[in-house]
Amino acid sequence: MECILIIIEKRIKAMKKYFYLIVSFISINIYAQKAEIFTDLNFGTFTNIPLRNFHNELAEDINFNGLKTTDNFNFNYGFTFGFKINKINTSFFYSHKVSGSKTSLADFSGFITLTNEIKGATFGGYYEKTIKKTSKGELLFGVKGLITFSKLTLKNYNSIANNLTDENFDFKSVDFGTGLLLTYKVHLGSLIIKPFIGLDIYFGGKLEFEEISDAHLTFKDGNPVKTGWTGLNGGIGIGIPIF
Fold it and tell me: What is the C-alpha end-to-end distance of the chain, expressed in Å?
């Protein structure tokens, strides 16, 4: 038994050596390639048109005068964290974005509030190449690959004739996409300022009901409601070279 323990201990030590060698190799490789970490604030427009149409259908079924719809998926906004390996001109990132709509009415008899909110968690990467250099910076063109995990929450909160209704329904989808990107990089000391604009094109997935398997959201005509992250986007980012 003691011999077996000694053998296991030796193997663990050997595995640790290999692990440290691998970590050292990766660190040296990243150092040689020179990397950059970055973050940005971004916004998008002309997105989630299917959800806008779905919300309009819901609002049309509420037969009360004075009902108002605001923020009907007109914009989405979010943030991004990522890193770039300069040697291969490729960046990898995580991005979070949110958009929504709201229809409401309030008077002496009660109130109605109907809200839809969608959140997207995106993992992706993009390859970019310098297409023009200036005295102050450089213009880059990029191509993106995207996968977004979306969650839609429908909220119906109303009180009519002292009858209170408070309902929440959650749906989720997986959306695959690609995109084009134009970035202008300006070096300011140890920082890189990066305003950008782009176009994302998504193949939206069905919004599946979280509580019932094989159930998904549909329009009145029975067609499935899908996410619609396709649209224009832009923002500004800050990069910090490392190593």
Answer: 48
**What pTM, to 2 d.p., does this model score?**
0.80
Answer yes or no: are the C-beta atoms of 44 and 74 closer than 8 Å: no
Those residues whose C-beta lies under 8 Å from the C-beta of residue 13, and which sit 6 or more positions away, are none
In sequence order, the 6+-apart residues with CB closer than 8 A to the CB of 63 are none
Q: What long-range pairs does 61-66 form, CB within 8 A, spacing at least 24? A: 62/103, 62/105, 62/112, 62/114, 64/105, 64/112, 66/105, 66/107
Residues of the chain with pLDDT under 70: 1-33, 243
Query: For position 109, what pLDDT does the model report?
Result: 74
- One-letter amino acid of 15: M
- Which residue is it, tokens 């770039």? 84
